[in-house]
Amino acid sequence: MTRRKYSIDFKKQVVKEAKETGNLAAVARRYELSANMVGHWKREFESGKHGEIDFSMVPVLDAEEVVKENEQLKRLLGEQALELAILRDLIKKKNPHLLKNLK
């Protein structure tokens, strides 16, 4: 089996079509390619490996969603820090000889 080389323009065309239809497997079958290869090309174009990033390929992020997710993650991190502090206090009270290991 020989390895084929595809041009950047061909890859762009396939990825654009896959993005528009939302079905990588169907586009891959149409061009007799592996769905994994089309997915790989899609990730390459989204990361900007082939030069400048095509912003039509990058998903649009809603600023409100990002802020909500950020606040949720901060709250979760705070809860975990509090749990750790409580657990350390419990260990210190029950096992004073472990005090030097926790610092």
TrEMBL record:
Coiled-coil stretches: none
InterPro entries associated with the record: Homeodomain-like_sf (IPR009057), Transposase_8 (IPR002514)
Leader peptide range in chain numbering: none
Biological processes annotated in GO: DNA transposition
Gene Ontology molecular function: any one: transposase activity
Gene3D superfamilies the UniProt entry points to: Homeodomain-like
Descriptive protein name: Putative transposase
Organism: Aneurinibacillus thermoaerophilus
